[in-house]
Amino acid sequence: MIYDSKQLKTLSVLFEKYLCECQYSKGLRPRTLVGYLEVFNTFQKIVPEVITANDLNPQVMTLFFKRISTRERIVGRDTIRIGVKPSTIKTYHNKLIAFFKWLEENNHIENKSLTEKIITPPEPIYNDERALSKEDISKIIASIALNTTHDEFLYKRDMLIISLLIYTGIRKTELLSLKVQDIDFNQRSLFIDGKTSKSKKSRFIPLHITVIMHLKNYLTQRKARGTTTDALIISSQSDKGFSEHGLKHWIQKYRRLSGVRFHLHQMRHSFACSLARSGADITTIMKALGHTTMRMTERYLRSISSENSRDYIDKLSY
């Protein structure tokens, strides 16, 4: 694509260059790049008067956050919601600041201290319960058992999926990327390839005996189907790995059948909180989740309240 000198100065063209560098030099995952693009598109939509890099200033960012915090949005069919969550504002800020710093470092902007002058929004306070309760998980498992009796393969595969999620805490992309060879029964471990992980770091997760049982049952059934693909979780309709669309349908199906309004990432929170309640230290939990900082792990443990300390306090003796 050829641009004239005026076009080269526009923010949208510079963002294309930035995204290209993120993809090919930094090696960011496609999903991460989509996130950056969505934030930038929102920024341009909310403050269309900002056309070039030199139009950027701290006041523009204040205006942007004011507008997205007060605008009305239609959510669903007829629900009107004003503004966005504090966590969303923080996400917008972090992604835009990364781009603005790139502009500064590559001399695309006259204001070299722009990012230093932009006010950082406060850390969002989370009061929601992200982890699922034992009762909720039991309902989901029961819905699988009750609604797959007509198909043995479906039962064993779906029981493996739920057990992997609640006993390993793996992410969606990690689950869909698992290969048969990632299972080590001798070491009772699951290998997570760094290429499929958000942290880009490979790790081994010890396998609970329940997961091992479901794995063996599933692999026996998988072999009986004459499966040739090396993807661990496969489609019930073809000899292919389970797709993101298929997993989305899986969630919708068991939300409806179980009556539990859950999303996949809650399983990861549940795994982290279960480890903490079992006495695991935060470093161990961080390694199992594949986090790079304890700060991120602490966010996953916000479902644990002070009331959870009752059993431990009752056991104290001096």
Describe this structure in words.
This protein is globular. The protein folds into 2 domains: 7-117, DNA polymerase, domain 1 (Orthogonal Bundle); 134-305, Intergrase catalytic core (hpI Integrase, Chain A), CATH 1.10.443. It has a 3-stranded antiparallel β-sheet, with no helix packed on it. It contains 14 helices and 5 strands. With 318 residues, it is mostly helical.
Number of domains: 2
Helix content: 40-55%
Radius of gyration: 23 Å
CA(first)-CA(last) distance: 75 Å
Order of helices and strands: HHHEEHHHHHEEEHHHHHH
Strand order of the largest sheet: 3-4-5
Which CATH architecture of the largest domain would you pick? Orthogonal Bundle
Give the arrangement of secondary structure elements.
Blueprint: H1 11-24, H2 30-46, H3 58-70, E1 72-75, E2 79-82, H4 86-105, H5 114-117, H6 134-147, H7 152-168, H8 172-177, E3 183-184, E4 189-192, E5 203-206, H9 209-224, H10 244-258, H11 264-277, H12 282-289, H13 294-300, H14 310-314
Antiparallel strand pairs: 1-2, 3-4, 4-5
